[in-house]
Amino acid sequence: MQVKLSLTKAVPAGLIEELTKKSVYCSPHLKALSITGDGSTAVLTVDREDQAAAVSDKVSRFIATMIKGYRKFDRKVVFENDIPVTYTENAWEEMLRRNWAYDSGFGQVALAGIGFDLFRYFEDVFVRIADESFRARHYRFPTLIPAEVLGRCNYFSSFPHAITFATHLHGDYDVLEQFSEANKQGPLNFPRLDALEQPQYCLTPVVCYHCYRTLEGHNLTADEMRVFSAVGSCFRYESYNTTTLERLWDFTLREIVFVGNREAVKDQRQVCIDVVAEWLKRIGLRVRFETASDPFFTSDFSERTYFQLIADLKYEMRVNVSPDRTIAAGSFNLHNDFFGKTFNIRSGDGSAFSSCIGFGVERFVYAFVCQKGFDPANWPEEVRRFVKDRA
Ligand SMILES: [Zn+2]
Questions:
Q1: CA max distance for the chain
Q2: Predicted pLDDT of residue 306
Q3: If you measure from the C-alpha of residue 314 to the centroid of ligand 1, how many angstroms do you get, rounded to a whole number?
C-alpha cells in the first residue's frame, strides 16, 4: 500500500538522492520511498497495512534528522578525465548472458572467464602501483575481525546498518542435537534463536583496520613511514540498495595504507592521486575525483560529514557507468591521527597519522565494461594482455 506523508519542512533538492538511499534502513516494512518534485511530500510503499503508522513515524523522524543536518556543499573536483565514451547499456545483463558473471546470491557475484580476466588486470595494476610507486609491504589478512576492534574504530556507532556479524551455535549438546534434528532436510531452520552465541566477531568491512592493528603500541621515528598493501573480501550490508556488480554485500577491496607523520601521509595520498589519475588517463576511462564523505548513519552524522568535506579528508574516484551516472570505484582518505590514537601508534613525539587508498575491484570491472564494451579487440593493449578466456 502507498502512504503519502506531507512534510512540514521540504526536503532540499541536494538531499533527495542521499535520503532515498539511506531510507532502506528505516524499516523492513518500507519497500520504497520517493520524494515528490518540490520536496514537500514523501511517498512510502509499505508491505503491511498494520505497520503503516509505525513506518510513517520512523520515516518522519528519519527525514527530520536528515534535513536538520543538511548543509549545501559544492563538491570540489580535483581531477577529471572528461572524454567521449560510447556506453553499453544493460552491461550487467550482458555479463550474465556471456557467463562472465554469475549471480551467486544476494549481493554476491561470481566472476569467470573474461569477467575474471578483467578482475585480474585491475588487481595487477593496483599491486604494481603499490610496488612501483610506494614500495609497499604486502599483507594477507583474515576475513573475520574481532568485534572489539570494530568497536574501538567507532564502526558500530557510525555504520550500524552495514555490519555483518559472524556467530555460531552454542557448544551445548542439547542445542546442537535440536538444531541437527530440525535440519534433517530442506532450508536452514532455527528451532530457537537463542541457540546462537552473541557475536564476538564480524566479517571485515575494510582492510585497513587490520593494518593499524599490526602496529598497535609501536613507536615510529619522526620520519618513519609504513606502507601496506593488502586485498581482502569485505562485507557491507546495503539492504535493497544492493545491485549487480555495482553495490555488493560481499566485495573485494584492495587498499594501500600509509602510517607516519602528518605531512608524509598527506603527501603520499597526493602522489597516489597523481599516479592513479595518470593510469586512468592512459587506459581512457571517464572519471572524476571529487570530495566526498563516508555514509555515516548516526545522529552526529552531519558534523562528521561536513568536517570530512570541508577538510578534504576524502576524495572518491567517480567512474561513469552511463552519460549521467557515476559510481564510486575507489577513494583516497586521510584519517588524521584517529587510528594512531586508537591503536596507540606513535610517530616521533606525537600520535601517528594515516591515510588509505581503496579500490573496489568489482566496481572497476563493471565500470570498465560499461565504458569499453564487450569486445576485447577494442580494449587497451595492457588490458587485452590479461584476456585468456576465449569462451
Ligand atoms: Zn582504509
A1: 65
A2: 67
A3: 11
Q: For residue 373, what is the DSSP state?
A: -
How much distance in Å is there from the Cα of 372 to the middle of ligand 1? 28
Instruction: Supply 97's cell numbers.
Output: 548472458
CB atoms within 10 A of CB 214: 15
Strand partners, 220: 347
CA distance 347 to 337: 10
- Give yes or no for a contact between 6 and 59, defined as CB atoms under 8 angstroms apart: no
Angle at 287 between CA 283 and CA 289, to 5 degrees: 125
Å from CA of 33 to ligand 1 middle: 31
Under 8 Å between Cβ of 197 and 170: yes
- Report d(CA 181, CA 194) in Å as an integer: 16
Residue-level pLDDT at 390? 59
Residue 291 Cα to ligand 1 middle (Å):
16
Answer whether residue 298 shows pLDDT above 60: no
Query: Rounded to the nearest whole angstrom, what is the distance from the C-alpha of residue 292 to the centroid of ligand 1?
Result: 14
Above pLDDT 70, what percent of the chain? 96
For ligand 1, the distance from its centroid to the CA atom of residue 332, given in whole angstroms, is 9
CA 189-191-192 angle, to 5 degrees, is: 125
